[in-house]
Amino acid sequence: MESYASEHGESRGVTVVTKPRVVLGVSGGIAAYKACELLRRLTESGHDVRVVPTDAALHFVGAATWSALSGNPVSTEVWETVHEVPHVRIGQGADLVVVAPATADMLAKAAHGLADDLLTNTLLTARCPVVFAPAMHTEMWEHPATQENVATLRRRGAVVIEPAVGRLTGVDTGKGRLPDPAEIFEVCRRILARGTAAPDLAGRHVVVSAGGTREPLDPVRYLGNRSSGKQGYALARAAAARGARVTLVEANTGIPDPAGVDVVRVGTAVQLREAVLKAAADADAVVMAAAVADFRPAVYASGKIKKQDDGGAPTVELVRNPDILAELSADRALPGQVVVGFAAETDDVLAHGREKLRRKGCDLLVVNEVGERKTFGSEENEAVILASDGAETPVPYGPKEALAETVWDLVLPRLRPAT
């Protein structure tokens, strides 16, 4: 993620390494202490970070802490070091500005172009990608004024991460919690990797399924599969970094929630179908990356099935689960909704994939070979993405996030025009 440039030209053949420059804005909420972890991840991964807190933020974490962790001076006022014109220079020189936490007050100021301190001035002068990670009480997040401010910022190209659901201050619980700093860092990393590219999924709602369903046989046993859910999570993270509102329907993954993603947890194929169809009602695209069990036991035993005295084994009758991908493709919730499927095959991969694409009726089908040591649980993947128009896009072996980006690149031109 390092960029290379010469500060004084290429004389004497000396190349100066320039670290990506990140401005970390911190506004005055109790979650300000979590920004220390985000700062650590940014600096340790090779970024030059300048922390710009508000006066209110310094009530929670002092300037000395920010300066020590970043290695850069910390100020809040436009009147400090005036000869350097910090209220202009900091924003102009940044490759990314991320505000975490972003309070309701900060979102309102940013949306209305107010500039009464160094951070808000920086936001006005920045011409790089800007990310807001909101944190506030549920009622404040849900207030129409806040939602309108968020919509305004997103319309202008900023990425506003959806807050997490969980424990807030005091005994309150709900939506408004700052997402995990590690996941905010992932959003920042992906946005920096895209450079100056605009958040091209802004204003879109996408649904992604991930993981593997489990079909209960008795209270302690189930029929399942080896899917880890990592590819689905990579798709969800990539979409969030590109500005989309993301609903992730996850089945039995155990992976931390991605920042800015609404997560719906399910267990079985029937539950996954219900959750996906509900979320897809207003979705621009649905990506079915989950490994959905084709069959489930016809009868669920209310007690643990015991070994038989005669040494025999019980017979398990199976029934078919609903074909969610075919149903989504045949009965689209919105005109022009894009549907993407996944095909995990063990032999004759492309032949089976082409047949499945024809049978399911989806727009894109990601076909990959799987096995005990292939794809499942791995950080890497390779695939061929088949399109309903006959196009085939091979994706070479590499990180699952690279495949995720390619999927969204192919979804984009197929989306209906934004309203």
From TrEMBL:
EC number(s) on record? 4.1.1.36, 6.3.2.5
Quickly give the catalysed reaction.
(R)-4'-phosphopantothenate + L-cysteine + CTP = N-[(R)-4-phosphopantothenoyl]-L-cysteine + CMP + diphosphate + H(+); N-[(R)-4-phosphopantothenoyl]-L-cysteine + H(+) = (R)-4'-phosphopantetheine + CO2
Record-listed CTP binding positions: D294, K304, P322, D323, I324, L325, F342, K356, K360
Q: What's the source species for this entry?
A: Streptomyces gulbargensis
Q: Where is the DNA/pantothenate metabolism flavoprotein C-terminal domain?
A: 201-411
Record Pfam families? DFP, Flavoprotein
All copies of the Flavoprotein domain together span 21-188
Q: Which GO terms describe its molecular function?
A: ligase activity
Q: Where is this region: Phosphopantothenoylcysteine decarboxylase?
A: 1-205
- Official protein name in the record: Coenzyme A biosynthesis bifunctional protein CoaBC
Assigned protein family: In the N-terminal section; belongs to the HFCD (homo-oligomeric flavin containing Cys decarboxylase) superfamily. In the C-terminal section; belongs to the PPC synthetase family.
Which residue ranges are recorded for the region named Phosphopantothenate--cysteine ligase? 206-419
Give the cofactor note text: Binds 1 FMN per subunit.
